[in-house]
Structures are given as C-alpha cells and as structure tokens.
Amino acid sequence: MKIAIRHSTTYHFDQPVPYALQRLRLMPKHWAGQRILYWDMRVEGGRCEAEYEDPHLNHVALVRVESGVEEVHVECTGEVETDPAFHGVVGPHRGYAPLWLFRQQTALTRAGAEVGALAQKARGAGGDNDIARLHELSALVLSQVRYEVGATDAATTAEDAARRQAGVCQDHAHIFISAARLLGYPARYVSGYLFMEDRPEQEAGHAWAEAYVDALGWVGFDISNGISPDERYVRVATGRDYAEAAPIRALSFGARDHDMVVNLRVDQQ
C-alpha cells in the first residue's frame, strides 16, 4: 500500500520569542515493512540546524526558531510504501539503547495499584503463549479505559489514566507498556500514522505500543483499536514513552506556546 501524508503544525506564541528550539521526530522509519518513497519537511519562522539519529534510531531534526517571531509553521509531505504481508512483527532489536532499558519504567509509565491489577489479571492468560497473553492485556486495557478525547493530556501518567478509566491512544499505549514491563516484557511507545478509509482528515497522529517477545522480536499492539498494526500503519518514532517519541518537543525562553494548530491528512495513493 502507498500512503500519502500531509502533516502541518503551527505554533502561535503569546509574544515575540527571543529564543526557541524544536526537536522534530517527523520522518518515518525506513524499515520494518515500510519504505519512504519521498519525504519533505519545510519550516517557516525557523531553520534546521542539525539532523541526527537518536538512541532509538529515530530521525531527529533540531530547528532553531528565528528571534522575534510569533509563529512557527512546520509542514511535512511524503509518501510511504507499506508491505501488505506486515502483521505487527517488527523483528530483532535495533538501535543504541540496550534491550534491558525497555524493562525500566519511566515517569509516564510508573505503575501503581490500577496498572498492577491489570498486569495481574493478564499474568495467567495464554499459558505459555506470550502473544496470547499480550493480546489479553491489550483487551483488558481497552475494556477498562474508554477512549475519550479531552479526558487526559500529554503529561498524564499511565496510572492516572487507568484510575480515571478514560484516555486516548497515548494513554492506552502507556498503560499497556507499564503493565507489560511488570510482566517482564521489554516494551516501548510508537508514534506514527494510521490510514483510515473513512477519515483521511485527522486531528492528530496515532500511537500504539510494541512488546519484545523472545521468539519474534518486537511485536506491535494497537490497544485503542484492539489489533496488531498492519499495512495501514506508518511507524515514525519509538521510545520508552511518549516523551522520547513525541513528534515535536519545544523549548522557548521569554514566551510560552499560546496556541498550536495541527492539520493532518493520511490518504491511500
């Protein structure tokens, strides 16, 4: 499948900003059932100072915002070809971050009583079948935490979302990751795009999780949709949690983000 993506983000500051940096993770990964046919990023109100791969092999662009601007616009357009045979199995671990690191909880995934209870329910599922156990965990998270836009924000932890029993794909992924780590699996967060035939215009990108299974390597779980990723998914960035895989992270001095507008279109070519 060929998937065309047009993703624009506009930041409006409350006053002219003297200094700001943006760390952008917007270019899809060129492996695991997908390849980039072309990708273009344009920035208005700033310029790209450096590009590099982080420890998770994410492509990162470091953008310096021009002094005195009140608005920054980032627009990405591209086309990615995905493999119709892909069914969520990413394969062996790659990158500079060691596999054991993904067993460690972070500030966003630290487990409490609610996440611990979910992990305990999934512990006995599937017998010796790791995939069955992880699918059961995914189903438990979705059954307990309803999808509700606005119930949480980017700083909400896995435990808080589980306690509220409401959240979005970011929260579903964090809860699954937290519980999977309690069960002994390395787990990580994935940010990317999902082609939906009935909804090319979208309000934001998508997020899901991956767990490492010895016999297979990394395996994806889209908790919000109750499936493993297939050819409709485009993987962009991975990390231990949202903070390490966020599409855009900004740092500014002398001004704050007043408003952010995102426009996203994901089409099949």
From TrEMBL:
Pfam families given in the database record: Bact_transglu_N (PF08379), Transglut_core (PF01841)
Protein name, per record: Transglutaminase-like putative cysteine protease
GO molecular function, one term: peptidase activity
Highest taxon of source: Bacteria
GO BP annotations listed: proteolysis
The entry's keywords: Hydrolase, Protease
Domain Transglutaminase-like: from-to ranges: 161-225
UniProt KW Electron transport keyword: no
InterPro entries according to UniProt: Bac_transglu_N, Papain-like_cys_pep_sf, Transglutaminase-like
